[in-house]
Amino acid sequence: MERNDLADFLRRRRALLQPENVGVPGGGRRRTPGLRRFEVAQLAGMSPDYYARLEQGRGPQPSVTMLTALARALRLTIDERDHLFRLSGHHAPPRIGGDEHVSRGLLRLLDGLRGLPALVASDLNIVLAQNPMADALVGEQTHFRGLARSCTYRWFTDSEMRGRYPAEDHEHESRVQVDDLRATLAVRPADPAAGKLVGALRAESAEFAELWAQHDVAVRRSDRKRILHPAVGLIELDFDILATARQDQRLIVYSPAPGSAAVSQLELLAVLGQERFTPSGTDPRSEARTDRHLPG
């Protein structure tokens, strides 16, 4: 691990970013260019103290998961991301199918959708990045580990996730998730991550196994979603999956029907979402967040 070079690289990349580049409120005059340290820490889901120590060249070796979060927070290119990994004493991630690096342009588009919940997910339904509105609507979804990173896996194995949706919608949601996963596996039949996910779900969920045996296939492109939100109640939104240049990543946008109750509900969520970037002094969280758990 090259601590001094890592610290210098982080400081210089942070100085290149402005608040408006990443969807962070400006918050008055800034004495130095770029984001503040606590803003990068919040974007990456780590404590400000931990990030400060990295920039000072005295922090412990970051994990692969934390480096991935930092690369997204700092809007690094793939080459810059690989450099970040090597400075930290890790091998750079392989550039093959299923690479989870989100491009700078796609992150910029995500930040620009300030009035609508939006996120970037892989074709295995793993949330890779989300904007503050998505955080307010469905909670932080990027902290899960292992198979639980996939929303599809959690849908069939986590009763708490299902509790966020009306019971009468469960059958439909199960079917479209299975059909979409089947379409992904058809495109990536030899991908070990996809095969491992399907194998685990067939072993752990009788419902999934039954639906999988029907061999239905359909790419999910749009739908309606009803979410039981603890602050605004039942909110009904259009759910659109927009195609990206990368076959293994998707931009997902939630939007309300004009004149519906969801319009005012999203306005309230916009206010709640601002709390994410409000500094609160000492941050008791450790390297990664572990207390945000609402599903997608």
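^ that was protein a. below is b, sequence first then the tokens
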Amino acid sequence: MMEKSLHHNDLGASELQMESIYRGRSLRKLLLLILLLVLLIITAGAAITKGSAPVPLQELWAMITGASADEMNVYIVREVRLPRILMSVVTGISLAAAGTIMQALLRNPLADPFTLGVSSGAAFGAALAIVAGTSVFGMNLVDSGPWLIAFNAFLFGCLAVGVVYGIARMKNSSTTVLLLAGVAIGQLFSAGVSALKYFSNNDALKDLIIWLMGGFWGSGWHVLEILLPLSALALLVLMKYAWDLNALISGEEVALTLGVKVKHIRWVCLVTVTLLASTTIAFTGIIGFIGLVAPHISRMMIGTDYRYLLPCSCLIGALLLLVSDTVARLLLTPIEIPVGIVTSFFGAPFFIYLLVKKRREYWT
């Protein structure tokens, strides 16, 4: 009897110790997320003051507190820099969240929002709008401005992924078929973009190339009114499945034994990240590597628990894109570099690092 009592006491002490360790790790992860959020706010504040027309810190503080401030500085902050900064933050969050979820669902560490042809489809839609001057419904885009260009990009981004999904469903929703179909459809739309480049005139070709480089020239409160609620809703949906994603990364068989509806979760999450990524791309153009880099940095920092990994990836993605956009604005001021160029400069070496240094972990 005494041996049993001692055994139960040992088990109880062990459970309490494990619970204490778990709570300690969870607290550290929460503190890391809070630290990243504070860092993002500080970076955004610094970005507001920097530019071809610098805004003094005392002027910014006056705007925050409601004191009198220079009208020109107020206009620059409220109508130019603040919408752009929020746009870069929302875009970074969206692309990072999409990359994180796609890497989990496809169980491929090199997957990102563009793996299933989203970027190629959106690029073709925008190219059709810029070069041909009409949408698929025959609307004139020259008179209607960037809204219908964004609509075309969104429509064809969703169309590309819809075709990929259809092909995959014919083959029992295999992740391998999803990836291969995404590559094939992406190449098809890329060929369409190349054809439109070939037949376009000089002005249209310049507009198309600038759009393909990615940037936040079209930032404004009217765009944020669409992207902010959409991004918030999508993130809530994805966070709802965080526990299920933790089970899914262990394998479909393990997830099924735990009662996870694998097919349902896969399709809901894929549709959500497709809408999230294609809507963002429609207004910003092609901005690469954020969806690839942010999830990997986050895993190094916080682990693979998606309850913490997803928000961490979002914050890292927002920070990376905000810093990249600030560098793009300041490096050759008053000339502005497309932010897609800056993200490619740090994203491409990181991609090579993943291929070379992590090949044993990823490919065996």
